[in-house]
Amino acid sequence: MQPNLPRGRGPLSDALFEHWCGAAQLHPVVLDGVDPLTDDDLHLALWCSYQLHYSGFDGVDDRLEWDGPTLAFRAQLEAAFLGALLDEHRPDSVPRDPITALRVIAAQGGPPLSSFIEERGERWHLEEYAIHRSAYQLKEADGHTFAIPRLRGPGRSAMVEIQADEYGMGVPGDAHSEIFAAAMEELGLDPSFGAYVDRLPGTTLATDNLLSMFALHRHLRGAAVGHLALFELCSVVPMSRYLTAARRVGDLPALSRFYEVHVDADVHHARLALDHMVGPMVRADRSLAPMVVFGASALARTEVRFARHVLGSWEQGTTSLRAELAAQPR
User: Fold this and answer.
1) Are the C-beta atoms of residues 213 and 81 closer than 8 Å to each other?
2) Number of structural domains, the chain?
3) pTM of the predicted model as reported, rounded to 2 decimal places
4) Phi–psi pair at 38, nearest 5 degrees
5) The domain containing residue 71 runs over which residues?
6) Nearest to residue 84, comparing CAs of 145, 37, 140?
7) Residues in Cβ contact with 203 at an 8 Å cutoff, skipping those fewer than 6 apart
8) Residues 104 and 83 in one domain
9) pLDDT (tens digit, 9 = 90+) per residue, 141-157?
10) What is the spatial distance between Cα 116 and Cα 82, in angstroms, rounded to a whole number?
C-alpha cells in the first residue's frame, strides 16, 4: 500500500507537490537562508523525491519517477545537501586508510541518546524513537541494495550477504523491516510506511536522505559502502541499550525481538563489512577509498545532529517530533 503524500512545509515541498498534481511548473531552487543539513522543507522535498524510487505515493503517477523537471529539481537539493556535507568533512582529521578510518570514526561516539533510553527511557520515549526511525526501518536494507548494481568485483558478495540477512534470508516475516513493523504495532503505533512523515523533522529525514543520495548515484557508491560499514560497526552497542530499555519497560516482546536480531546479526556484519567488503573493494579500486571515508564521516555527523535534536527536546521534557496536524492528508 502506498503512503499518502505528506503536507508541504514551505516553498520547496509545496512547489514539488503542485508540480506532481499538474498545477504548476518547477522553477530553479532558491535556498537563501536555508541550512541544507537540517532544513525541514528541503529535506521533506528531497525525501519525497527519493520516495518515487521506492514505493511512491498514493495518487502520484509512478511515471514521475523519471520526470525531467522533478529530477532537475532534486539535483539542486542534492547539490546543496552534498555540498554542505563536503564542507564540514575534514579528511585530514582521520586516517586515509578506510579500515583504520572506519575504526576511528566508530570509536568517536556521539551524544548519549542510547544511554538516555537505556537508563531513563520510558515507554513514550521508545514510541517516539520508533516513529523517528520508521522512515528508514520500514524499508531497512532497500537503500543499500540500490548500491549493489553500481559495484563490481571483490567485496560485493559480502555486501550481498549482509543485505540477505537484512531481508531475513527470504523467510516471510523475518525481514528486519517486517520485525520493526510488528514492534511498532505492539507499541500502539501505525506500522504503515510513511504514516508519520508529517511529524518527522528535517534532522530525522536527513538521516534517510543521506543513504538514498549515496546509493542512487554511481559517483557516490563508495560513500554508500562507507555508510553501510559504519552502520554495522556502530550498531551493536546502541541496539543492546535499546534492548535493555525494552526489557526494563516490559511487555514488549516484539520490540525486544527487533533489537535482539540486530545485536546478534551485527557482530557478524561488522566483521563482514570491514574484512570482506571494504577491504577487498578498496584494494581492487583505490579510487573508492576517499569516498568510503567520506560516507562514514557524513553518517556520523548526520546522526549526531539527529541525536542532539532528540536529546535536547527530551531533556526539556518535550516531544522531539513536529506538531500533530489536524487537517486531512493531501
Assistant:
1) yes
2) 2
3) 0.96
4) -140, -10
5) 11-87
6) 37
7) 38, 305, 306, 309
8) no
9) 999 999 999 999 999 99
10) 31
